[in-house]
Every structure is written in C-alpha cells, then in structure tokens.
Amino acid sequence: MAVAIGGMRSYENFSGFDLDSFAGGGLEHSIGDRPVFDNDPIDDLEESKLFWENAELAKKAGVPLTVYLKREGWGDEEIAEITDSEEYQMRQEASRSAMEGLRLARTEGTNPVNRNNNLNNQNGK
Fold first, then answer.
1. Number of domains in the chain
2. pTM of this structure
3. Helices marked H in 1-125 — which ranges?
4. CA spacing 20 to 30 A to 18: which of 31, 61, 74, 112?
5. Is the sign of the CA dihedral 73, 78, 80, 82 positive or negative?
C-alpha cells in the first residue's frame, strides 16, 4: 500500500503506481520463508542422534528398519544404501543364525528323546 501511496504522491522512483495499482493486484508480493537463525551443526547432530535412537526403539517394538525409514520419508534408493551394505547384510545373517540356533535349542529341549540323550551324554553313558 505504501508503494501505491508513493505513486499517488508522485514520489521519486514510484512513478507508474497509483492507488489503483494495489487494488488491481499490480503490487502483490510475498516474502519467502527463511530461517531466523543460522543452522547450528550441533543441532543437526542432535537431530540425527534422535532419529537413530527412535529407529532403535522402533526395532525393539518390532518395526523393521525399512518400515521405519519409509515412514520417516526415506526413498527406496536411500533405504537400499543401507540394506545393500555389507554391514547390514552381515547383521541380518548373524540375526538369522542366532534365531536358528534358538529354534534348534528349543526343539532339542522339548523333545524327550533328545533330552534323555543329552543327559546320558553328559553323564558319560
């Protein structure tokens, strides 16, 4: 509105504007979003730490990492960077091996024949 008034009063550098300029939409503008403060790198580290702590909590609650990452807005390519990594694959294999070992131990522990054989083997019979 100030520009329209400046044009109406014929101020320098306001020529071409008048009170109708505002009403006609010739002065529409907006101020873009911008941060009030510069981004602090420590804030980024804290956000990242919280993100991965929440991923661990999700895992403990039974939510697979890939599901958590998708819900957090990660794309398939970003998720593949993790799931295709050697470290991730090794952890998955170790987890599968541990689960298989528990399954076998549970099976042997509940089978009366195996339990007796294990006891006999421990007693030297």
1. 1
2. 0.54
3. 2-8, 19-23, 41-60, 65-71, 76-83, 86-110, 112-122
4. 31
5. negative
